[in-house]
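Researcher: Re-running this chain for the archive, since the previous output was lost when a drive failed. Same request as before.
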Amino acid sequence: MTLLRLARRLALPLALALPATAAQALQIHGVAVPATAALGTHQLQLNGAGTRYFLIFKVYVAELYLPQRAATASAALHMPGPKLLRLVMLRDVSGDELGTKLTHDIQANVSTDAFNNMIDGLARMGQLFAQHKELHSGDTIELADIPGQGMTVTINGRSAGAPFTEPGFFDNMLLVWLGEHPAAQRLKEALLGDTKSSD
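Model: Regenerated C-alpha coordinates:
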Protein backbone atom coordinates (compact mmCIF):
# COMPACT_ATOMS: atom_id res chain seq x y z
CA MET A 1 0.00 0.00 0.00
CA THR A 2 1.36 3.40 -0.93
CA LEU A 3 1.81 6.13 1.68
CA LEU A 4 -0.84 8.21 -0.10
CA ARG A 5 -3.47 5.43 0.10
CA LEU A 6 -2.58 4.78 3.74
CA ALA A 7 -2.96 8.46 4.57
CA ARG A 8 -6.38 8.54 2.91
CA ARG A 9 -7.56 5.48 4.84
CA LEU A 10 -6.43 7.00 8.14
CA ALA A 11 -7.93 10.40 7.36
CA LEU A 12 -11.55 9.19 7.21
CA PRO A 13 -11.82 7.81 10.76
CA LEU A 14 -9.99 10.87 12.03
CA ALA A 15 -12.45 13.18 10.29
CA LEU A 16 -15.38 11.21 11.69
CA ALA A 17 -13.96 11.54 15.20
CA LEU A 18 -13.49 15.30 15.09
CA PRO A 19 -17.15 16.44 15.36
CA ALA A 20 -17.73 14.33 18.48
CA THR A 21 -14.62 15.77 20.10
CA ALA A 22 -15.60 19.32 19.20
CA ALA A 23 -19.18 18.82 20.41
CA GLN A 24 -18.02 17.82 23.88
CA ALA A 25 -16.11 20.67 25.48
CA LEU A 26 -15.12 18.75 28.62
CA GLN A 27 -16.25 16.13 31.09
CA ILE A 28 -16.72 16.82 34.80
CA HIS A 29 -17.30 13.96 37.23
CA GLY A 30 -18.73 11.81 34.46
CA VAL A 31 -20.99 14.58 33.11
CA ALA A 32 -20.41 15.37 29.43
CA VAL A 33 -20.50 19.15 28.96
CA PRO A 34 -21.29 20.18 25.35
CA ALA A 35 -19.48 23.11 23.75
CA THR A 36 -22.78 24.55 22.51
CA ALA A 37 -26.47 24.43 23.39
CA ALA A 38 -29.56 25.12 21.30
CA LEU A 39 -32.22 27.36 22.82
CA GLY A 40 -35.13 27.61 20.41
CA THR A 41 -33.62 28.91 17.18
CA HIS A 42 -30.58 30.27 19.02
CA GLN A 43 -27.21 28.55 19.27
CA LEU A 44 -25.36 29.40 22.48
CA GLN A 45 -21.77 28.66 23.41
CA LEU A 46 -20.43 27.30 26.65
CA ASN A 47 -19.06 30.08 28.80
CA GLY A 48 -17.91 27.86 31.66
CA ALA A 49 -18.83 24.89 33.83
CA GLY A 50 -17.99 23.73 37.32
CA THR A 51 -18.98 21.75 40.36
CA ARG A 52 -21.13 22.83 43.30
CA TYR A 53 -19.90 21.32 46.54
CA PHE A 54 -21.56 21.23 49.95
CA LEU A 55 -18.80 20.61 52.45
CA ILE A 56 -16.96 17.69 50.79
CA PHE A 57 -19.97 16.41 48.84
CA LYS A 58 -20.46 17.02 45.12
CA VAL A 59 -24.01 18.31 44.56
CA TYR A 60 -24.25 19.23 40.86
CA VAL A 61 -22.37 20.31 37.76
CA ALA A 62 -23.42 23.78 36.55
CA GLU A 63 -23.03 24.89 32.91
CA LEU A 64 -23.53 28.45 31.65
CA TYR A 65 -24.32 29.11 27.96
CA LEU A 66 -24.32 32.62 26.46
CA PRO A 67 -24.50 34.19 22.97
CA GLN A 68 -20.79 35.00 23.30
CA ARG A 69 -18.06 34.55 25.86
CA ALA A 70 -18.00 36.69 28.99
CA ALA A 71 -15.03 36.83 31.37
CA THR A 72 -16.75 38.86 34.10
CA ALA A 73 -20.01 38.54 35.99
CA SER A 74 -21.06 42.02 34.87
CA ALA A 75 -20.54 41.14 31.21
CA ALA A 76 -22.55 37.92 31.55
CA LEU A 77 -25.40 39.56 33.45
CA HIS A 78 -25.71 42.57 31.13
CA MET A 79 -25.24 40.65 27.89
CA PRO A 80 -28.36 40.92 25.69
CA GLY A 81 -29.91 37.86 24.14
CA PRO A 82 -30.87 34.38 25.32
CA LYS A 83 -29.04 32.59 28.13
CA LEU A 84 -29.11 29.11 29.62
CA LEU A 85 -27.99 27.66 32.93
CA ARG A 86 -27.98 23.86 33.20
CA LEU A 87 -27.59 21.90 36.45
CA VAL A 88 -26.84 18.17 36.35
CA MET A 89 -27.30 16.54 39.74
CA LEU A 90 -24.43 14.48 41.15
CA ARG A 91 -26.33 13.21 44.20
CA ASP A 92 -29.89 12.76 45.40
CA VAL A 93 -31.29 16.00 46.84
CA SER A 94 -34.69 16.97 48.22
CA GLY A 95 -36.47 19.24 45.74
CA ASP A 96 -37.84 21.32 48.60
CA GLU A 97 -34.34 21.70 50.06
CA LEU A 98 -32.91 22.82 46.71
CA GLY A 99 -35.70 25.38 46.22
CA THR A 100 -35.18 26.77 49.73
CA LYS A 101 -31.42 27.05 49.22
CA LEU A 102 -31.85 28.88 45.89
CA THR A 103 -34.24 31.37 47.52
CA HIS A 104 -31.77 31.98 50.35
CA ASP A 105 -28.91 32.54 47.91
CA ILE A 106 -30.99 34.98 45.84
CA GLN A 107 -31.86 36.99 48.93
CA ALA A 108 -28.14 37.23 49.74
CA ASN A 109 -27.39 38.76 46.33
CA VAL A 110 -30.22 41.14 45.43
CA SER A 111 -31.59 44.32 46.96
CA THR A 112 -34.64 44.21 49.23
CA ASP A 113 -36.80 45.82 46.54
CA ALA A 114 -35.62 43.35 43.89
CA PHE A 115 -36.30 40.43 46.23
CA ASN A 116 -39.77 41.73 47.06
CA ASN A 117 -40.54 41.92 43.33
CA MET A 118 -39.54 38.28 42.98
CA ILE A 119 -41.57 36.91 45.89
CA ASP A 120 -44.51 35.62 43.85
CA GLY A 121 -42.21 33.97 41.32
CA LEU A 122 -40.01 32.49 44.04
CA ALA A 123 -43.06 31.08 45.80
CA ARG A 124 -44.12 29.42 42.56
CA MET A 125 -40.61 28.09 42.02
CA GLY A 126 -40.58 26.73 45.57
CA GLN A 127 -43.82 24.86 44.86
CA LEU A 128 -42.37 23.58 41.60
CA PHE A 129 -39.36 22.04 43.32
CA ALA A 130 -41.46 20.78 46.23
CA GLN A 131 -43.52 18.76 43.74
CA HIS A 132 -40.33 16.87 42.87
CA LYS A 133 -39.85 15.33 46.28
CA GLU A 134 -36.41 14.15 45.34
CA LEU A 135 -34.02 15.01 42.54
CA HIS A 136 -31.77 12.10 41.69
CA SER A 137 -28.19 11.85 40.50
CA GLY A 138 -28.22 12.40 36.74
CA ASP A 139 -31.36 14.57 36.75
CA THR A 140 -31.04 17.79 34.75
CA ILE A 141 -32.55 21.21 35.53
CA GLU A 142 -32.43 23.97 32.93
CA LEU A 143 -33.14 27.64 33.56
CA ALA A 144 -33.52 29.31 30.16
CA ASP A 145 -34.15 32.95 29.35
CA ILE A 146 -35.34 34.25 25.99
CA PRO A 147 -35.93 38.03 25.89
CA GLY A 148 -39.62 38.85 25.58
CA GLN A 149 -40.69 35.39 26.75
CA GLY A 150 -39.32 35.16 30.28
CA MET A 151 -37.50 32.42 32.12
CA THR A 152 -38.54 28.82 31.69
CA VAL A 153 -37.67 25.85 33.90
CA THR A 154 -37.36 22.32 32.55
CA ILE A 155 -36.58 19.22 34.56
CA ASN A 156 -35.24 16.24 32.62
CA GLY A 157 -36.37 17.90 29.39
CA ARG A 158 -39.96 18.46 30.53
CA SER A 159 -41.45 21.91 31.03
CA ALA A 160 -42.10 22.64 34.68
CA GLY A 161 -44.81 25.25 34.17
CA ALA A 162 -45.45 28.67 32.68
CA PRO A 163 -42.56 31.10 32.14
CA PHE A 164 -41.48 33.46 34.90
CA THR A 165 -42.18 36.83 33.33
CA GLU A 166 -41.17 39.16 36.17
CA PRO A 167 -38.62 41.68 34.79
CA GLY A 168 -35.05 40.60 35.40
CA PHE A 169 -36.08 37.31 37.02
CA PHE A 170 -33.47 35.18 35.23
CA ASP A 171 -30.57 37.58 35.80
CA ASN A 172 -31.49 37.80 39.48
CA MET A 173 -31.49 34.00 39.58
CA LEU A 174 -28.08 34.00 37.91
CA LEU A 175 -26.74 36.05 40.82
CA VAL A 176 -26.95 32.86 42.90
CA TRP A 177 -23.86 31.76 40.97
CA LEU A 178 -22.38 35.06 39.73
CA GLY A 179 -23.32 37.56 42.46
CA GLU A 180 -21.19 39.27 45.09
CA HIS A 181 -22.03 36.44 47.49
CA PRO A 182 -22.18 33.41 45.17
CA ALA A 183 -23.15 29.91 46.23
CA ALA A 184 -19.46 29.04 45.77
CA GLN A 185 -16.64 31.37 44.69
CA ARG A 186 -14.77 28.63 42.84
CA LEU A 187 -17.92 27.71 40.89
CA LYS A 188 -18.38 31.38 39.97
CA GLU A 189 -14.85 31.45 38.56
CA ALA A 190 -15.50 28.24 36.63
CA LEU A 191 -18.71 29.59 35.07
CA LEU A 192 -16.73 32.62 33.94
CA GLY A 193 -14.31 30.42 32.04
CA ASP A 194 -11.63 29.46 34.56
CA THR A 195 -11.10 25.79 33.68
CA LYS A 196 -8.80 25.32 36.71
CA SER A 197 -11.85 25.85 38.92
CA SER A 198 -14.18 23.49 37.04
CA ASP A 199 -13.49 20.28 38.96
